[in-house]
Amino acid sequence: MFLSHEPRMLKHKFEGSSLIKEVEFDAVTEQMDVVFNNNMAYRYHAIPKTEYQALVESASAGKYFSENIRNRYSYTKLS
Questions:
Q1: What DSSP string runs through 30-47?
Q2: What is the pLDDT of residues 25-72, one digit of tens each?
């Protein structure tokens, strides 16, 4: 059995984003919870880890999210 030393849950807070407050990515289920600055939260499904990484590393999280995630993946409203 292969044991991965990578964490299952990855979290990132966006200090300077005008749209996104924080995200939490589950590497096993490939679900990403997004909390917006208005405190609304959504769970996005079937998100590849590379997409999470690109969001976190982008120069503008809001722009990246709007262009690459918002209308491309299914989601469930959490709050």
A1: TEEEEEETTS-EEEE-S-
A2: 999 999 999 999 999 999 999 999 999 999 999 999 999 999 999 999
Residues 62, 10, 40: CA angle, nearest 5 degrees: 45
Spacing of C-alpha 14 from chain mean position? 11
Strands 41-44 and 75-77: antiparallel
Q: Which residues are registered as beta bridge partners of 13?
A: 22
Say what angle helices 61-68 and 49-57 make with each other, to 10 degrees: 140
As beta bridge partners, residue 43 has: 33, 76
Closest by CA to 22, choosing from 61, 54, 79, is: 61
Residue 42 CA to residue 52 CA, distance in Å, equals 14
pTM value is 0.90
> What is the C-alpha separation between 7 and 58, in angstroms, rounded?
21
